[in-house]
Each structure stands twice: as structure tokens, then as C-alpha cells.
């Protein structure tokens, strides 16, 4: 076979070369535009969520008025008449045990045995942020915003119900407190979403980088850290 006949014509070679360059060239302009649009949409959705949370808080304040208590010196206070009505609803500790299931009572040792691990978690998380967050320049999480004890003041609860409520307040408060510490740590070190969908993600997760987004990672990591510090600065100014 004649090799010269098999060679492409100059015009064909030029077209083939241009075609190869076309498909090999990276999309320089399209990706950043699409990425910016996606980030803008995510920020808008996050703003809507915050607005809904503020609206929910207003509704809860209205609900508190219906329940006839007000805030005084940082605590909820009922009037004397309301307390009297609540006391009439209280059942004795003996009746509480009598109406509880036998198997439910048997689970009590398992429930309260977790108290020591919760205390250890509380202590280690507090020590962790006390040391590390100072190094990172991050504002420490206020424990009192998450671990709250006030249910024992309710007049319609007996002594056992108050103990149970105190335990639940501590356990769930510590978990929320630790989650906030962990979420700030994650935003500082690894603000990247998972490929799979996760349930009940923390509030910062929506603004994290997408899984596999290598183009944005180096700069966006510093942006995430700066946003975290700016968030803490804003909270500090608000508290002043």
C-alpha cells in the first residue's frame, strides 16, 4: 500500500490537530461560573434557614406567653397561681413507680451507668477546646449555652421525675456541647462534605466544600477558617 496516499492532507491534519486541542483543553471559564452560582444558591438557602429559625424563635416566645411564665434574672418564673395549679397535677413518687413498667424500672441501672462516660466526655471536650482553640484562634464554645438545668423547678414533677429530667438535660446538653466543639474543629481542619448523604448534619456542614472539589480546596480551606474566626468575632461583638 502506498504510504503517501494514506497520509492526511495538510488541511485535514490541521483540522484533526484543532479537534484534539478542543477536546483536550480544560473548561477554564465555565466551571468557576457554575461553582460560583452553586455557592450563591447554597448561601441563599442557608440564609432562608436562618430566617426560619428566627421566625420559629418568635413563635416560641409567643407560646411562652400562653404558658404564663416570664423571664426574670435569666430564669423562667411562674406566678403563684400557676404554681398552685401545677402542684395539683403532681403525682407521688410511689405512684410513679407503681405506674411504671417493671422492665422499664430494670433499665434504670443501664441508663445511669452512662453518667460516668458523659462526665469524662464533658471534661475531656472542655480541656480539648481550652488548649486547642486558643492555638487556632477560635472562640471557645460556651458550655452554659448547651448544658441547662431548669426542669427541677417545675412544680408538677415529683422527685424521681426531676432526677430523670436532670439526667436527660445533662446527657443531651453534653452531646450538643461536644457536637459544637467537634463541628468547629471540623470546619478548621477538614471542611469537606461526604459523598454520601448524612442525617442531622451540624449547622456548618452546608457551607463545606463539595466532595472531590480539588480546584477549590487549597484556598477554600483558608476561607473556611477565616469565616469561623469572623463568626466568633461577630458573636463576641454581639455579647458586648
Task: Summarize the structure in words.
With 240 residues, this protein is mainly α. Helices cover 65% and strands 3% of the residues. It has 10 helices and 2 strands. It is elongated and about 65 Å long. The N terminus is likely disordered.
**Poorly predicted runs:** 1-6, 8-12, 15-19, 21-29
Total strand segments: 2
Largest pleated sheet: 2 strands, antiparallel
Number of helices: 10
Q: What's the mean pLDDT score?
A: 83
Strand content: under 5%
- Helical amount among residues, as a percent range? 55-70%
Net shape: elongated
| Element pattern in H and E | HHHEEHHHHHHH
Structural class: mainly alpha
Strands of the largest sheet, in order across it? 1-2
Features:
240 residues; mainly alpha; 65% helix; 3% strand; disordered N terminus
Topology:
Layout: H1 3-6, H2 10-24, H3 30-66, E1 69-72, E2 75-78, H4 80-87, H5 93-99, H6 102-106, H7 108-112, H8 115-136, H9 159-189, H10 217-239
Helix pairs in contact: 8-9, 9-10
Summary?
The chain contains ten helices and two strands. With about 240 residues, the chain is mostly helical.
Amino acid at each position: 500500500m502506498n504510504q503517501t496516499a494514506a497520509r492526511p492532507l495538510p488541511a485535514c491534519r490541521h483540522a484533526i490537530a484543532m479537534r484534539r486541542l478542543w477536546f483536550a483543553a480544560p473548561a477554564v471559564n465555565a466551571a468557576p461560573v457554575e461553582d460560583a452560582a452553586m455557592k450563591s444558591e447554597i448561601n441563599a438557602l442557608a440564609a432562608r434557614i436562618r430566617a426560619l429559625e428566627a421566625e420559629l424563635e418568635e413563635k416560641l416566645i409567643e407560646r411562652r406567653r400562653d404558658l404564663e411564665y416570664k423571664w426574670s434574672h435569666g430564669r423562667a418564673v411562674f406566678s403563684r397561681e400557676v404554681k398552685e395549679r401545677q402542684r395539683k397535677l403532681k403525682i407521688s413518687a410511689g405512684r410513679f413507680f407503681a405506674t411504671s413498667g417493671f422492665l422499664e424500672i430494670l433499665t434504670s441501672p443501664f441508663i445511669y451507668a452512662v453518667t460516668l462516660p458523659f462526665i469524662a466526655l464533658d471534661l475531656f471536650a472542655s480541656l480539648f477546646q481550652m488548649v486547642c482553640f486558643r492555638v487556632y484562634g477560635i472562640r471557645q464554645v460556651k458550655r452554659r449555652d448547651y448544658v441547662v438545668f431548669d426542669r427541677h423547678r417545675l412544680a408538677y414533677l415529683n422527685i424521681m421525675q426531676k432526677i430523670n429530667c436532670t439526667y436527660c438535660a445533662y446527657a443531651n446538653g453534653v452531646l450538643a456541647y461536644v457536637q459544637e466543639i467537634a463541628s468547629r474543629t471540623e470546619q478548621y481542619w477538614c471542611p469537606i462534605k461526604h459523598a454520601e448523604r448524612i442525617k442531622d448534619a451540624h449547622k456548618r456542614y452546608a457551607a463545606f466544600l463539595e466532595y472531590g472539589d480539588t480546584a477549590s480546596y487549597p484556598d477554600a480551606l483558608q476561607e473556611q477558617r477565616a469565616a469561623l474566626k469572623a463568626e466568633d468575632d461577630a458573636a463576641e461583638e454581639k455579647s458586648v
